[in-house]
Amino acid sequence: MEFEQLSSPGRRAIAIAHLSRVPRYGIQRVHRQQNVAEHVGRCAMLAATIVAALKHNSPVMTYEEAMDWTNLVIFHDLCEAVTGDIVHPVHVEVPELGNLETRVNQVLFNGTFFSGNPKSFQVGRLFCKLIDRLELLMYVKEEVYGGNKHLETLESKAIDIVLHSWEAFAKSFNEHYNGSLAATPQGIYNSFPTIVAIMKGEHCG
Fold first, then answer.
1. 69 sits in which H/E element
2. Predicted confidence band at 133 (pLDDT cuts at 50, 70, 90)?
3. Mean pLDDT taken over the chain
4. CB atoms < 10 A from the CB of 146, how many?
5. Which residues pair with residue 23 across a beta bridge?
6. Would you call 35 helix, strand, or coil by DSSP?
7. Is pLDDT of 44 > 80?
8. Alpha helices in the chain (DSSP H)
9. CB–CB of 179/171 below 8 Å?
10. What distance in Å separates the CA atoms of residue 24 and residue 13, rounded to the nearest whole number?
11. More confident residue, 15 or 162
């Protein structure tokens, strides 16, 4: 997909459809190649499940803010319809790629899917990162369950990444939304059986 196409009518629908043709983590040795559309769809289901529980945990979080966070997750990789799935080490070596993603997102979104609440956006970005890493853990566990020994060493690292993301998100959520989430691994185990099941690999098989 060319960058110029994004300014045409229906650009988001075109980009969403194109994501099913964009491979995810192309440099990894995997048994089953995942595309970006699969990743985003699974992230969306995780977000819808977890954000509902978060709303019950906070006395001040609004429905609009819950939708903001869900939308952030749904659209967080839409720019990859143009850029492809660029892994983090490449971003570090070529910082100009971040500018390209920013330009693509500005054209795609133009503020139309988000309420504009700065507090909601700040915490929502941490929520999106948590969901993104949680889905990666799901994928890794499925690969390992299917016999992929190349990813076995990545499994424990992926769990640690989820726990670090949880800690950052829980602290920010409690500060901005009067929440009572424990910003520790035990906080996940106490509050979110969905996350626990994924960390244990119970969704595999």
1. helix 63-75
2. very high
3. 82
4. 13
5. 35
6. strand
7. yes
8. 11-18, 36-57, 63-75, 80-83, 88-93, 96-109, 118-145, 152-177, 185-191, 193-199
9. no
10. 20
11. 162
